[in-house]
């Protein structure tokens, strides 16, 4: 199978600004010469890093855990690449970075949905009908406050149990 894309993932380090002999670990995603870098928020002593392999040197528990983490990051980046290809989306280094960080999908909330609905329907529906929607909004806010101790909930978190709990709250 021929492909016109190059895709690489490498781990590299940069000197820490605060501590002299400490290196900060980064991952670089490259597609068609375009780079995206992510800080992994991990540090390693300069003598324990193998630049050629892009992994920690040694057999200590700390190094083994770090290398296992780097393997997980690499696998997750490959998975993100595969998902973008499968979804037939544009595959770029930034797209993979955004997918890896969870920033490519906009997460909507219940209040966003209610505000969108009420804002669009206020000129379409009669005032008596809108009053019912405003009342439903008020009850949803009270329910979220009493049951979940929060002001809002992501739509991903809504499930059958949420509906049953809301129904029980309203009765």
TrEMBL record:
Residues 109-170 form the Phage integrase SAM-like domain. Keywords: DNA-binding. Residues 13-97 form the Arm DNA-binding domain. InterPro entries: Arm-DNA-bind_5, Integrase_recombinase_N, SAM-like_dom. It comes from the Bacteria. One of its GO terms (molecular function) is DNA binding. This is Phage integrase SAM-like domain protein. It comes from Arenibacter algicola. The lineage of its organism: Bacteria, Pseudomonadati, Bacteroidota, Flavobacteriia, Flavobacteriales.
């Amino acid at each position: 199978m021929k492909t016109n894309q190059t895709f690489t993932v490498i781990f590299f380090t940069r000197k820490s600004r605060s501590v002299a002999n400490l290196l900060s670990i980064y991952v670089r995603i490259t597609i068609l010469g375009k780079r995206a870098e992510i800080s992994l928020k991990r540090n390693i002593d300069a003598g324990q890093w193998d630049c050629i392999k892009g992994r920690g040197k040694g057999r200590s528990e700390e190094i083994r855990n770090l290398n296992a983490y780097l393997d997980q990051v690499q696998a997750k980046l490959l998975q993100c690449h595969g998902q973008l290809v499968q979804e037939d989306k544009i595959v770029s280094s930034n797209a993979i970075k955004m997918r890896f960080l969870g920033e490519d999908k906009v997460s909507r909330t219940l209040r966003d949905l209610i505000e969108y609905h009420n804002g669009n329907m206020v000129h379409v529906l009669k005032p008596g009908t809108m009053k019912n929607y405003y009342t439903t909004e008020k009850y949803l806010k009270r329910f979220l406050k009493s049951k979940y101790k929060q002001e809002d909930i992501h739509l991903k978190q809504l499930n059958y149990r949420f509906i049953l709990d809301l129904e029980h709250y309203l009765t």
